[in-house]
Every structure is written in C-alpha cells, then in structure tokens.
Amino acid sequence: MRRLDPGPGTDQKVAEYRKNGHVMKISARNVIKGKIVSVEKGATTAHVKIEVAPGQVITSSITNEAVDSLKLTVGSEAYAVVKSSDVMIAVD
C-alpha cells in the first residue's frame, strides 16, 4: 500500500512516501490521492486526469516519458502533488 503522510516527528511541510521500507520525502503539502481517469498523449506532452473525489478532476501536463516511466494507466491509483509559489485570485 502506498501512503503519503506527514510521518511521526517530521515537519508538516514534508510528506513522506513509504513503500517496502523505503522513504522518499517531498516538500509539497498538497498531496491528493485519486484514480487516473484519462491519459492523453500528444507529440511530447501528455495530459493526465486524476479524479480525486466524485466529479472532481485534477489535470496535469507531464512528458510522455514520465507517463511511460511511472506506468500510468487509466484505472490506476496515483497522487496529484501540487506545489505552487503563487496562488492568484481574480474577480469580475
């Protein structure tokens, strides 16, 4: 089973990926588990859609090489890891 969580004794801004006794830390706080509902490859870039809740989909643009390396397929579980330096808000 794959888990991302703050882990005991770690900074809340660091999530830990644990699998088979190995730990990988990432600095992103927003890690959202979901199911891949679409993988559309283009010439060099793919759009991967992950449904994180019923009717709520996050889309990521990544390289085709990353899709192949991560073995991303429709129906597989994956994580959307959101790391942003700015969040902008606009109104009409």
TrEMBL record:
Keywords: Molybdenum. Residues 25-91 form the Mop domain. Pfam families: TOBE (PF03459). InterPro entries: Mo/tungstate-bd_C_term_dom, Mop_domain, Transp-assoc_OB_typ1. It comes from the Bacteria. NCBIfam families: Mop. This is Transporter. It comes from Methylobacterium brachythecii.
